[in-house]
Amino acid sequence: MKKIVVLLSLLVASLFADVKYVDIFDAYDKAAAEHKKVMVMLSKEGCPGCAYMESVVFKNGDVEKYLKKNFVIAHVDIDKDGLPDGMDYFATPTFYFQNADEKILKRLNGGENAKDFLETLKKVRATK
Which of 30, 55, 75, 115 might form a disulfide with 21, Cβ 3.0–4.6 angstroms? Predict the structure, then answer.
């Protein structure tokens, strides 16, 4: 019985523990106020790599915790929202990592597994 309660608790926690996106127009002010970097994910509906990043990589406990602590995350659907100024893509997902002044620190084309993505996040976080 104890195992069932623990498993149900973990399941419920994972359902409500998703990475939260903010509007790209608010992301930079929020990042400045919270002393964080900005991660912009460019995606489109039906993108398998985007779905993998959101359903597997972002739900990895270490990745999720690191993202929430160090990044403000914006999501842009390139078909519905268009491309933000200064950004383009070869394929989706494409990630732009920026500081609060909108300076691009890194661009990542495509997805990565959780371990590699966490390393990318740490490198970006250390970038001035």
Answer: 75
